[in-house]
Amino acid sequence: MWTRSLDYMLRHLIHRGALSVEMPSGEVRRYGEPEADAIHVRLTDPDLPRKLVLNPDLALGEAYMDQSLTVEGDDLEGFMALLIANRAGGGRSWILDLNLKMQKLMRGIRQRNTAASSKSNVAHHYDLSSALYELFLDEDRQYSCAYFRRPDDSLEQAQAQKKAHIADKLLIRPDMRVLDIGCGWGGMAIFLAQNADVTVHGITLSEQNRRNCIAYALRRASTGIGRSRCRSDARHSFSTSRACLPPLSHWRPGP
Length: 255
Description:
There is one protein chain. By secondary structure, this protein is of the alpha/beta class. The chain folds into 2 domains: 2-110, no CATH class; 115-255, 3-Layer(aba) Sandwich (Rossmann fold). Helix content is 46%, strand content 15%. It has 10 helices and 8 strands. It has a 4-stranded mixed sheet. The protein has a 4-stranded mixed sheet with strand order 5-6-8-7, with helices on one face. The radius of gyration is 27 Å and the shape is elongated. The model is unreliable at 223-234 and 243-252 (pLDDT under 50).
């Protein structure tokens, strides 16, 4: 059934150029112009025709990745160009049209992002062992791209340069209040509080990130100046200010 459905879909899709497909059974079927040089594709997973019919966009990429779909000569560019040209040129079938309509209908359900699902998604990614992130992040666990001024900059240097670069662009002045949405482990918030004399309020949905933010800020509060103003609340956020953090010497706010 699924092989016949895939065959029907390809017969109505491919009109420009040519595509030759070896089905999991070993049968070879050709689509498109009779005289054109064909792109040759081989399917090895018996369940792949079903996957390609029901969700071609996802199944095609996954099949190429796990090698249950192979392209002769590894001509992936030619294969994709053939599919795109035919789809753009009006190649269609009711199977593809129905698939697209179903995807649009389901998109709102699949992508519905409630507070509970957001927290669950964040926990799945971030609430992992600290030892994992220590393997590849810098000291304060910056999770965005570093700023390498020179090829021999260390990761620590590059991340410090990134934070300073962002701070300069923000044109921060003393006594400002800064909201850091998605503050991660708190490194940027703590950097600003240390060096720009501002109060920073960081927000994260990750329980582990929030705990790490507080612990990290308190470890930085080594001068004993006044009472610590690093605090947290039940809504997964934390605040910090210069009152509890000694300044760094390598950055000052720009003019």
